[in-house]
Amino acid sequence: MSTPPPMVSRACATLLGTPARTAERLKTGSRTAVYRARLRDGRSVIVKLYAPTARRNALTEATAIRAAAAAVPVPEMLGSGTASDEDATALILSDLGSCTLGTAVRAGRIPRSQALQDLGGLLGRLHRAPVMRSVPRRPFIDAVSALTGRCPSELLDRIAPALALIADTPDTAPTVWCHGDLHFDNVVLSGSQDTRHLVDFTDAGPGRRESDVAHALVMTAAHTPCDREALTSRYSLALDNARLSAWVVLITVRCWAYAAPGEDQALWSLRLADLTHQTPHLFRTQRTERTS
């Protein structure tokens, strides 16, 4: 750890009343940055900073964490609020350590199948958390609109059957608290029993349960029937398997659209090609034009 950046020190002093002595940067995004900070009173905490232009900020993520805490283990929320005169915000959480489900799988301590079951169990519990009416569900059309500027129109046309299936979801379908970015490294193992804690609620919000399960399947590359069964076998709520498959197609396309050109995008192209063979009914058949 090194001398903390001024924003980290200010956030700790403002929200906790104790300045940071040292800080280590863990992750940096376009609008957020995450640090592990050691306070002058000896505590270690996680500090997440949000730029003023961030669509979500510390206050909205704090709302998601409070809701999730009623159903699953999460880090203790120590403080959240404005951290600068420019309206940047900060969220400060307890430090659960650096051992994630992902590191345990890569080290061979936990089998991949067990890790997938753990994710399914956590999602099933999270989706039982009460959803407040004051927190709106993001319209499905927004997810599609965000892709129009990044995807060729031909690709969106190809997955039209999948989009139609999702769009036809009845309004009576359950709305649940979705994590929005669940994968092995967003589960921290902490305590003597390696309790699984959900972390990083940046993209959390009310939504359809199938979308959240599909995101976990895509981000863990659980495309085989065996992997899908491992994750969903521990999911304790009912799922519409047809809509789940449609969401897998949409999220895979979204990952392709935001992937870096080259090997990363090629990987997502291969996964999308696999889906056309696994679920051909969710893709529009390309026909060759004939002329007389």
Secondary structure: elements and pairs:
Layout: H1 6-16, E1 20-28, E2 32-39, E3 44-50, H2 58-68, E4 77-82, E5 89-94, H3 101-106, H4 112-126, H5 140-148, H6 153-158, H7 160-167, E6 175-178, E7 187-190, E8 195-198, E9 205-208, H8 209-219, H9 225-233, H10 241-258, H11 263-278
Antiparallel strand pairs: 1-2, 2-3, 3-5, 4-5, 6-9, 7-8
Task: Explain the overall architecture.
This protein has 292 residues and is an alpha+beta fold. The chain folds into two domains: 6-94, 2-Layer Sandwich (Phosphorylase Kinase, domain 1), CATH 3.30.200; 101-282, Aminoglycoside 3'-phosphotransferase, Chain: A, domain 2 (Alpha-Beta Complex), CATH 3.90.1200. 41% of the residues lie in helices and 18% in strands. It contains eleven helices and nine strands. The chain has helices at 6-16, 58-68, 101-106, 112-126, 140-148, 153-158, 160-167, 209-219, 225-233, 241-258, 263-278; strands at 20-28, 32-39, 44-50, 77-82, 89-94, 175-178, 187-190, 195-198, 205-208. The strands form three sheets. Strands 1-2-3-5-4 form a five-stranded antiparallel β-sheet. It has a two-stranded antiparallel sheet with strand order 6-9. Strand 7 and strand 8 form a beta hairpin. Helix 8 (209-219) packs across helix 10 (241-258). The relative contact order is 0.12.
